[in-house]
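User:
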Amino acid sequence: MTTSLTALELSQRFRSGALSPVDAAVDALEAIERVDGEINAFCHVDRAETLAAARRSEDRYRQGTPLSPLDGVPTSIKDIFYTRGVPTLRGSRLLARKDGAADPASWPDDAPVTSAVHEAGCVVVGKTTTPEFAWKGVTDNTLTGITRNPHDTDLTPGGSSGGASAAVAAGLGQLALGTDGGGSVRIPAAFCGIVALKPTYGVIPMFPSSPFGTLAHAGPMTRTVADTAAFMDALLRPDPRDWSAVPARATTPGPGGYLAAATEGAGNGAGDRPLEGLRVAYSRDLGFGTNDPEVEREVTRAVDVLASLGARVDSVDPGVADPVDAFHVLWFAGLAAVLAPHGPDAIDHVDPSMREALGRYHDYSAADYLDAVAVRMALGARMADFHQGYDILITPTTPIPAFAAGSDVPPAWHSPDWTSWTPYTYPFNMTQQPALSVPCGTTDAGLPVGIQIVGARFDDRLVVRVGAALEAALGQVVPAPRIHASPAGSAGG
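Assistant: Predicted structure:
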């Protein structure tokens, strides 16, 4: 089946004529129909439109005019991004209950990333689930229910791009678009054993502006670093609607784009040392986290591999305090702003855990917000200085593996806040640095573990190069999940 191929492998076969984009679209749609009932990754699928797009791609290949290296590749879009003619309900009954919410005419715009996907010729197979307004680190809501991890359906895939990660891991499309305001592509990538990049803020234009402000990034989610890199190359499209966007050349100043960086990182074979001389700082816990021993074991093993590839690795913390209190001010002020247009009773119609969280974090003053911005600026300055001495910072992506689905935190956890178990992701939304999550192993129970590769702002290509080098050296470290697109059924890969 085409579902087992990577995006770039598919593209190669399309060009040679060995496969057609219609073949890939049919396989993806049949896989969604066969297994998505068990993981609930999709909230919208339009079979007719998907096949029509695949046929247009097929015609372009026949004429020798594909739009990009990813033309025809099955792709999903998180139900946060505007998609012309398709409801963008963001997992919320507040939007679903509005008159005309399901009317295609009510959704006239594409987000910049949606436009980029279409301009690249990718075939959109559907929209993926999100917690309400993408507000937390797991994926469930009262509109579409609980999304589950393909490795174990009793567990969460993480969030807030959990539908995207579950879809990619289960083989329901090679590419997925997610958002990341506090770890939302990296957390589910780690939990599901896939790759995800949060690029430097502004590199991928965003519209409409996120209520979470400049914490929120768009990012690609795929099975390999090379696919992530190729997807990034496709997403680098300017859009005047995002006043804060930065030019694509900010992260691709040299020859070639992200895919060239991934190819360089993957090296030329045994004995190659593609990271020779790279200065790497390994921080097990950023100075304030606590790790599951099996997660730390796998990440440490992967760091040793980086050293074998020529990197100079030091175990060192960047010398920062946990910025969670400032993050909460920025985050929950944004969340309150999301609800405000829906009237004073909106709070009565949202995710109960969101209601409870807003009860803890509310009524912030302008002074509180400015204080939080000051913390953010100081953190950014500290990390900029840190990267004068180190090219790359390595941490676990998450300190724990996936836990029970339907809960915001692990059972008997010490805190009700999703940020309490994601200490290594949200700091880099505050600093706007690029951060890549790559699978690096599994726990004894076979659950995926992710390693986070963080670079200085605008060093996105370096982050990708390091990720590709590590991936090539580690090989296949996460087995196919139990729920998979295999036509043999949902049991086995």
